[in-house]
Amino acid sequence: MNQNSEAVEKSKESKKINGKSRIFTREFWEVDLLIYPKILFFVLLVAVNTCYTFRTRFFRDVFGIPAQQYGIIAAVLSFVAFASAPLWTYIADRFRCPKTTLLITTLCQGAAFFLFKCIARATEETLPQTIAAVIAVGSVINCFNGAVYPLMDRIIVAMLNSSKCEGNAKELYGRQRLWGTLGNTVIVQFMGYLIDKYSYDSIFPAVGISFTLFTVIGFFLIPSDRPKNGVSIYSIGEKKDPEIAKSAKLEKKNEKRPSNFESIGKLLSNPKFGFFLLIVLFNGVSRAIGSHFMANYIEDDLDGLSGDKTFVSLASNCGQAIELIFFFVSRYLVARFGVFKLMVAAQVSMIIRMGIHVALPVGTGIQTYVYIACLAEAFKGISFGCMTASGVMVAVKEAPIELQATAQGLFSGIYVGLAPSLAGLLGFWLLKTDVPLLPGETKDDLSFKTRRAKELASITGFFNRHQGLFKISWILAMIAFILLIFKSQYIDKKAKAKALQKIELEEIKKTDENLESSVEATADSQSAITADISEKSQ
Question: What's the pTM value of the predicted model, to 2 decimals?
Fold first, then answer.
């Protein structure tokens, strides 16, 4: 009876605090809903993706750069993001300033986008100079962009660990990240509408407003790097994670911080983490091939499916809808299946996605194939959701607390930096070759299409343009799957056996030390007895 009455009282307390409904309290929004991480993810992804989905057409329509040249541009820009990510995360780790670093780099990224206003549209004579100028401006933007995702993940994980909400960061992360996907979905639809109605010039005010909005919101919602009570973003959450508490003690001792290369070397020397990054690379290249060239593939009449921008948005939305669902239930998926099975699902879904695109006939103009391609992009949502959730958790698990931002930087740099760079190079290699029109020919002539197909097949063979890219992507996804199984069956088991052996050796050492101390104590006792007898006999 007493237990029932206590339950009723707790229920009343949960609904009302000081006579007010709980929904009007700060605790409801910060603890029950975890509203701050959700807002941060939503606004950040809105800002970053104001132009991302339409980037291929942006370069073509605004600067006159052919779609065939986009591969090399994407390769350079993605490599810049990859190279800069460890630098920014090292700065954040070294000086204990993740919030400051994130806000400055995000604001600079938005400001740098306006440098595109200084570039004139290309002509036949000025095309190389225009491409070089676009790459230069894009490199500045992506240099700052390299800091965004790893630092945001690092901050969100710290905020979740420090919250009073039940569950750890592994369980809570997915439901926060889904708001980023929701923000991406909203901005893609909105920007598609603005571009169709007002042209690509509408991107510039959207970029300025969204990046400024995130900077202001982040300033107020992200925990301070060095608050007055002496607890930094790296030491919050000590109650939930003893490793963080241990790191906080080390921080107070002002121990010497390793250099950037030492930090990366320490992480890569961990076989489990190093092999994980290799899997991320193969999966990331496979994913990025679709991300870079999917819009062009859907809209191309000769090498694609003859769709339009509506289908480009539909394909994007199919993937993002699945991402939303996945991130919403990720807490239960991680608890039920674990990180390894999520990674298996990531590779298998990527294999299915690219297998469907390889099987679809191109150049037919049949709309049914476009719908099938859009549905295939749903598997992208599964793969991306699984890799993002598992990648963040592996970085948290395998890296020491003082190097977690660096670990996030390596994961993010490879997944959204190096992998897209390699994918861009592959696209440039396969898409740069084309067949010129003969006098009096048009692209719609059957004679041109037949001649073009034969000549391209003789040049590129099995790996023919968009279909060739998807074949390579499918092969890479298969390699990632095989590497994952090898890691699970050999690398992880070997590391586990080594760890158990180390524990056994430490236990044996302790036992030996206890025996030695026991023998010494016995010897001392016997010596004392002998001395006592000797004294009495005298």
Answer: 0.72
Residue numbers of the domain that contains 290 = 22-245+257-433+454-513
Q: Is 95 inside any structural domain?
A: yes
Split into its structural domains, the chain has a count of: 1
Q: For residues 244 and 400, give the distance between their C-alpha atoms in angstroms, rounded to a whole number.
A: 9
Identify whether 9 is part of a domain.
no
pLDDT values of the chain reduced to their tens digit, one per residue, 538 residues: 444 444 444 444 444 545 456 666 666 666 667 889 999 999 999 999 887 767 877 898 899 998 778 888 988 998 998 889 888 988 888 888 899 999 999 999 999 999 999 999 999 899 999 999 999 999 999 999 989 988 998 888 888 877 766 666 666 887 888 898 889 888 988 888 888 788 888 999 999 999 999 999 999 999 888 765 555 555 554 444 444 444 444 444 444 555 556 767 777 788 888 889 999 999 999 999 988 888 888 988 877 888 887 788 788 888 888 888 887 887 788 778 888 899 999 999 999 999 999 999 887 888 899 999 999 999 999 999 888 888 877 877 777 766 777 787 788 888 988 899 899 888 888 776 666 777 777 777 777 777 776 766 665 566 767 888 899 999 999 999 999 999 888 888 887 777 777 777 777 667 656 666 665 556 556 665 555 555 555 5
Residue 314 falls inside a structural domain: yes
Q: Which helix (H) or strand (E) holds 373?
A: helix 367-376
Backbone angles phi, psi at 177, to 5 degrees: -65, -30
The answer to the question of residue 10 being in a domain is: no
β partners of residue 20: 17
- CA dihedral (215, 218, 223, 225) in degrees, to 10, reads -20
